[in-house]
Specification:
The protein is of the alpha/beta class. It has a domain at 13-159 and 264-365: 3-Layer(aba) Sandwich (Rossmann fold). It contains eleven helices and 14 strands. An eight-stranded mixed sheet has the order 3-4-6-5-7-8-13-14, with helices on both faces. A hairpin with a 6-residue loop joins strand 11 and strand 12. The longest helix has 14 residues, at 319-332.
């Protein structure tokens, strides 16, 4: 670890659950944040930085960290998640709070002059793109796992990220299911309701027939329940709107930070230098797709949200198409990307198809540049 690190925990257990062999747990103090970090591999190994998504934590990458021979695997918890400091999220900066936190972490680990391989999952993919925009010379390569659209989550209508409404209604903190948020805040571990975190994980993060082992299911559930609930973190505050579905983004918290009102990383298409990109996604992802089951356009069209104004006014956000459009622009400007689709896989290729995902990852980051 770097000279600026303050180590407050080092061991093989977290929250009463054993870490996998070879994984260590550390908290790194930076000028921005006390960042909890899982790490594995030799300190002089090639650094690979894994960035988790919404309502999760670094332990979703634990199995990947444990199987990266010769590499220095780093999986931090973002602010307000896992065991990292519960600092507020300024949503008006989009995902820049997270990007800046990661850059401070990289500096504290003594890696500021050494490009890292960035691996971003879901909203973490958008954070990784923001990081590459801000520090392109510090990125050796970029791996996007089921990344959120470059235009954020919800409320846009086309490949260019055009908002459905001028106030970006249909995105932000008010779009979260209040029953799920309440159960998340209560650390509910039951499976007695479709909105329980356990059922949301098993039905949305994973695609049937995948089922985590009982031990890993508890680890993943604990990661979800580590999310700090409230207006400053998840899901964030709410602004009411005259436009359907009646809520627009506030200025605090996670779901507002990923609203297209504040989150737009389409400028990644024009970064220079241009790190190579690997885009890995599951064909059966219910969260990030062109017909996401968490998108109000999709839910309105299915009759689950009353008053839907119709396909012309509020279609499903074309998330996959938006990502592909930005990456195509990136390639046209001289960058390179490769798309790999894992058939039958859901939102978590690194969990559902670990060997296939690791093969893709290692082949990519070890390829000669």
């Amino acid at each position: 670890m770097g000279d600026n690190e303050v180590m407050v925990r080092e061991g093989e257990r977290m929250d009463g659950e054993d870490l996998l062999r070879g994984i260590s747990s550390t908290t790194v103090e930076t000028p921005r944040l006390g960042t909890h970090l899982l790490h594995a591999g030799p300190e002089d190994g090639v650094p690979v930085l894994f960035v988790h998504g919404n309502t999760s934590a670094g332990r979703f990458f634990e199995q990947t960290l444990a199987a990266l021979p010769g590499h220095r695997g780093l999986a931090p918890d973002l602010r307000g998640f896992g065991a990292s400091e519960r600092k507020p999220i300024d949503a008006t900066r989009g995902v820049a709070d997270f990007s800046d936190d990661l850059y401070a972490l990289v500096g504290a680990l003594g890696l500021a002059g050494r490009p890292v391989h960035l691996v971003g999952w879901s909203a973490g993919g958008t954070v990784a793109m923001r990081y590459a925009i801000d520090h392109p010379e510090a990125v050796a390569s970029l791996v996007l796992i089921n990344p959120m659209s470059p235009y954020g989550f919800g409320g846009t209508r086309d490949e260019a990220g055009t908002p459905c409404w001028p106030d970006f209604a249909g995105s932000g903190g008010g779009t979260a299911n209040p029953e799920f948020v309440g159960r998340l805040a209560a650390k509910d571990r039951t499976a007695d309701d479709p909105n329980s975190p356990r059922n949301v994980m098993n039905n949305f993060y994973f695609a049937p027939p995948f089922k985590a082992t009982p031990e890993r299911e508890e680890v993943f559930l604990s990661s979800m329940l580590s999310t700090q609930a409230g207006d400053d973190n998840y899901p964030g505050d709410t602004t009411f709107s005259e436009n359907w579905p009646g809520v627009a983004p506030g200025e605090r918290g996670m779901n507002n930070a990923i609203s297209p009102k504040y989150c737009d990383v389409s400028g990644f298409a024009r970064v220079e230098p241009r790190p190579p990109v690997l885009w890995v996604r599951g064909s059966a992802d219910k969260i990030v797709s062109d017909a996401s089951l968490l998108d109000f356009g999709t839910l309105g069209g299915m009759g689950f949200v009353p008053g839907w104004p119709g396909e012309e006014a509020f279609p499903s956000q074309p998330m996959i198409s938006q990502t592909r459009a930005v990456l195509d622009e990136y390639a046209a400007a001289g960058g390179s990307y490769r798309e790999e689709v894992l058939e039958g896989c859901g939102h978590t290729p690194h969990v559902e198809k670990p060997e296939e995902f690791r093969g893709l990852l290692l082949d990519f980051i070890e390829a000669p540049r």
